[in-house]
């Protein structure tokens, strides 16, 4: 399948980047930390007393600890995907990895704790899928992600951008393997004033004015994220499904997303649905779009940030996952939270149209989506689980910070 092959290539680029950072950035990082952790009286900058490092940069954690600076790991993916990567060695022990050639991707997977009743082979992170596709037992992407995930045990604590009401079971199964775990999220909901100015693409604010002219819950919002690349044939299947569903749609088509066919795709989308029903932009202010009264459904790749934004907005989702953690995220949307429909591994206009129609019209899905949104809002409000976890994290870091560096080194060597 073209979109899966492209995903593997993108993941391969990530491995190359990780190796490059390991080779080139560690010395400079060590030097920087050494200079910033000085406790000399002449320093105008307070010494670094704690490091919060991306969990996919394990060397950042190791070097900090070697210098006597406590390090915490922060992972931006879902807790459920973190648990799946943490369970990779068990999946091999149980014989659930590698997938047999030609095996049924709907075969249940029992080796990820807490997910035995609903997880299938096709729901595992995409790097597990590559083993099935290539018969390569030692897949470099899977090996790297599993190793980096297990390495978070070495950090003083693990921070996850999630909420108890979303992933309580996964968090419970992760906690015994870590020194401490903080579930603080969704972060964008905890800081409503937080700008999306860090977007990789310039947002088209004009789409909000177009939404203003649409009726309530009438628009399908389509965005497959910042990395997905689709073929022109796949584009046409999505387009035919959207047109057949009959709803106005706002579609994010990044430059180059449909390759050399991009210009033709933009014209084709507008011509097929008519300018009144089709609005195509290179990028959109997604949080504002999702909470707009006109949006009735979100067709998404199910990246964790997009998933969280859809959850907080209470919008039903149709999920077409692309790679890494998106496969397992979409399973949670469809089978656990029941706030949308999982369309993975299918790119057919009739299926797109049917699922969009169901997501737009289903009172049950909408009620589940809005109910989950209310639960998450309670999590981030004063007294909620995420708010309490944030306070606990602040105190945790404060306790690390008040201990002098020399005392920490002596204590940690005991």
In CATH, the homologous superfamily of the largest domain goes by the name: Glycogen Phosphorylase B
- Share of residues in strands: 5-15%
User: Which range best describes the helical content: under 10%, 10-25%, 25-40%, 40-55%, 55-70% or over 70%?
Assistant: 40-55%
Helical region count? 19
List the strand order in the largest sheet: 7-6-5-8-9-10
CATH structural architecture of the largest domain: 3-Layer(aba) Sandwich
Q: What is the helix/strand order?
A: HHEHEHHHHEHEHHEHEHEHEHEHEHHHH
Structural class: alpha/beta
Organism: Eleusine coracana subsp. coracana
Keywords: Glycosyltransferase, Transferase
GO molecular function, one term: quercetin 3-O-glucosyltransferase activity
Protein name: Glycosyltransferase
Can I get a quick summary?
The protein is an alpha/beta fold and 414 residues long. The chain is 50% helix and 10% strand.
Question: Could you walk me through the main structural features you see in this protein, from its secondary elements to its overall organization?
Answer:
It comes from Eleusine coracana subsp. coracana. One of its GO terms (molecular function) is quercetin 3-O-glucosyltransferase activity. Belongs to the UDP-glycosyltransferase family. Keywords: Glycosyltransferase, Transferase. The protein is α/β, with parallel strands linked by helices and 414 residues long. It has 2 domains: 14-36 and 46-184 and 385-412, Glycogen Phosphorylase B (Rossmann fold, 3-Layer(aba) Sandwich); 206-376, 3-Layer(aba) Sandwich (Rossmann fold). The chain has helices at residues 2-24, 26-36, 58-66, 79-86, 88-93, 126-134, 140-151, 164-174, 187-190, 206-212, 232-245, 262-273, 286-290, 304-313, 326-336, 349-361, 363-380, 385-402, 405-412, and strands at 51-54, 71-75, 158-160, 181-183, 219-223, 249-252, 278-281, 295-300, 317-319, 340-342. The strands form 2 sheets. It has a 6-stranded parallel β-sheet, with helices on both faces. It has a 4-stranded parallel β-sheet with strand order 1-2-3-4. Strand 9 (317-319), helix 15 (326-336) and strand 10 (340-342) form a beta-alpha-beta unit.
């Amino acid at each position: 399948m073209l979109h899966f092959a492209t995903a593997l290539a993108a993941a391969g680029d990530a491995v190359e980047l990780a190796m490059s950072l390991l080779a080139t950035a560690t010395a400079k990082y060590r030097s920087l930390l050494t200079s910033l952790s000085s406790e000399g009286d002449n320093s105008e900058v307070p010494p670094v007393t704690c490091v919060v490092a991306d969990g996919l940069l394990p060397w950042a954690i190791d070097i900090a600890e070697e210098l006597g600076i406590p390090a915490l790991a922060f992972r931006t993916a879902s807790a459920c995907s973190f648990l799946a990567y943490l369970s990779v060695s068990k999946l091999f022990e149980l014989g659930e990895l590698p997938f047999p050639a030609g095996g049924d991707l709907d075969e249940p997977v029992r080796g990820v704790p807490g997910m035995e009743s609903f997880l299938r082979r096709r729901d595992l992170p995409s790097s597990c899928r590559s083993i099935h596709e290539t018969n390569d037992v030692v897949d470099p992407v899977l090996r790297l992600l599993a190793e980096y995930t297990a390495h978070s045990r070495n950090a003083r604590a693990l921070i996850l951008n999630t909420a108890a009401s979303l992933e309580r079971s996964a968090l419970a199964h992760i906690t015994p393997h870590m020194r401490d775990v903080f579930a603080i999220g969704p972060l964008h909901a905890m800081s409503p004033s937080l700008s999306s100015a860090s977007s990789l693409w310039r947002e088209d604010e004009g789409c909000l004015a177009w939404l203003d002219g649409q009726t309530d819950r009438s628009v399908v919002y389509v965005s497959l994220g910042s990395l997905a690349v689709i073929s022109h044939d796949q584009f046409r299947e999505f387009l035919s499904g959207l047109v057949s569903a009959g709803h106005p749609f706002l579609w994010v088509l990044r430059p180059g997303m449909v390759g050399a066919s991009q210009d033709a795709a933009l014209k084709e989308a507008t011509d097929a649905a008519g300018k009144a029903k089709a609005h195509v932009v290179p990028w959109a202010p997604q949080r504002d779009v999702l909470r707009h009264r006109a949006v009735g459904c979100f067709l998404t790749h199910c990246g964790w940030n997009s998933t969280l934004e859809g959850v907080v907005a209470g919008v039903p989702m149709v999920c077409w996952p692309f790679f890494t953690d998106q496969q397992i995220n979409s399973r949670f949307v469809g089978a656990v939270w029941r706030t949308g429909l999982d369309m993975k591994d299918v790119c057919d206009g009739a299926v797109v149209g049917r699922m969009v129609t169901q997501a737009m019209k289903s009172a049950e899905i909408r009620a589940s989506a809005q109910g989950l949104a209310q639960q998450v809002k309670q999590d981030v409000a004063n007294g909620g689980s995420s708010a309490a976890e944030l306070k606990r994290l602040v105190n945790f870091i404060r306790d690390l910070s008040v201990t002098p560096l020399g005392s920490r080194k002596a204590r940690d060597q005991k």
